[in-house]
Amino acid sequence: MSTNSLASARPAALSLVTTHGFPDYALLDSGGGRKLERFGNLTVDRPEPQAMWQPRSPAKWSTAHAVFSGGEDEEKGRWRIDKPVPDSWPVKVAGVTMLCRLSAFRHLGLFPEQFPHWEWMLEGLRRVTGGRPRVLNLFAYTGAASLIAAKAGAEVVHVDASKKAIAWAKENQAASRLGDAPIRWILDDARKFAAREVRRGRSYHMILVDPPKFGRGPANEVWELFEHLPALMQDCARLLDPVCAHLCLTAYAIRASALSIDGLVREVLAGRGGEIESGELAIVEQSGGRALGTSLFTRWSSP
Is 303:282 a contact under the CB 8 Å cutoff? Predict the structure, then answer.
């Protein structure tokens, strides 16, 4: 199969990309619709509907510092604090420091399953020659990917619609001692920003897109993944550097197959050639070796 036809071809198979964690993170056990994780020195017990099996190490669960209980969608809820938990605590990953904290949306400000994507990103940035790599991080949240890229020498544009998330990302920047890193913090709607960048004639060597299923922009713009993602990806395709470029799209908590986002990315990059990979991200648990799926992804690299 020629690389010129690759972007429009059907994938031979979907990939399972896993991580066993890193020194400051481990999935200790899972089961019964829950997952037990260690972030730095703290252990948390959170909902995970996909863990339909039974826990392998029941005794470990009593070590949790905090337990999250959610509503019907298991997203917004409250934490039960069983052992002392600071307002925030450091978790080191890929050379940067992320300040984790218990949020009302069960998240802690860091998504460890993305670790393989960060490694893939760094490999792609090393391919860029003739100046600093340029990275666009859309729906960038608390900035793990932005900081990792900046530490590797990239110029980063970090875009998020939440003022609170950007403030948190700046705290992480300070904790990582990257105050002088070339990062632009942009509070904006991702669709509007990408469209403006197209009109400005900008280009990027690496574009990361990690959208929610539903969200709102800073001016109350509505984001619906199934409705708005196709047009955004068209703009992202226009923003990719014509010589050396990489694109990574991740999708969480949607009723879709990885084939859906694979087909979309192949369509918007038709004719570009290169390599494309799609599938699921998963974390391998420490106790039983089972892989817990977390999200869908498609990633592309130019020839």
Answer: no
CA distances from 297 to 113, 263, 272 (A): 11, 11, 19
Domain count, the chain: 1
Q: Which helix (H) or strand (E) holds 108?
A: none
pTM: 0.92
Q: Which two tokens stand for residue 131?
A: 């100046």
pLDDT 10s digits, 232-251? 999 999 999 999 999 999 99
Cβ-based neighbour number of residue 227 at 10 Å: 9
Q: Which helix (H) or strand (E) holds 151?
A: helix 144-151
Tokens (6 digits) for 174: 């300070």
Q: Which helix (H) or strand (E) holds 19?
A: strand 15-19
Range of the domain at 256: 3-301
Do residues 189 and 218 lie in contact, with contact meaning Cβ atoms separated by under 8 Å?
yes
* SS3 (DSSP) at 76: coil
CB atoms under 10 Å from CB of 106, counted, come to: 19
Q: What is the CATH number of the domain that holds 10?
A: 3.40.50.150
